[in-house]
Specification:
The protein is 53% helix and 3% strand. With 143 residues, it is mainly α. The chain has a two-stranded parallel sheet. The protein is elongated. It has one domain (29-139). It has helices at 3-26, 30-41, 51-62, 67-78, 87-98, 131-134; strands spanning 46-47, 112-113.
Amino acid sequence: MKRRNFVMLTGVALGAVIIPPSLYFVAPSTKEFAVKLIEDELSYLKLRHGIAAQYVNDYFEHNKNNVLETAKWKTFYYLNYTAKNSNSLSEMVKYFLLSTDFFIHKTDTAREINYLGLYNPYKSPVPNPFSFVIYPPERISNV
């Protein structure tokens, strides 16, 4: 092998070994990216200040010390994914809405949305999000 080829292959191999871990550590926090994603996706709603960050803290507290999950979120950041491109991100936005009082108040976009707690289908206080379709407001009293 010629010296020039050896130096070139060594440089490429070194770059392949050094660049991915450095990108992992240089990327912003996964929580910052998730909060920005939620606020951008739901910009048409009136979110109370800080509820996206509160939800993201609860969401990532549920998946503690998961290196693969963190690597996946960093990949979403570098590839500039949005909820339209990724099922995982759209699921997070969906569960954010289920964790708020958005559906309790019949998807009223004019009112300020409050965070209730991390959504759990077995313990959640959130009723059926599509109940307003089955029972229109004129048939529901005292709501």
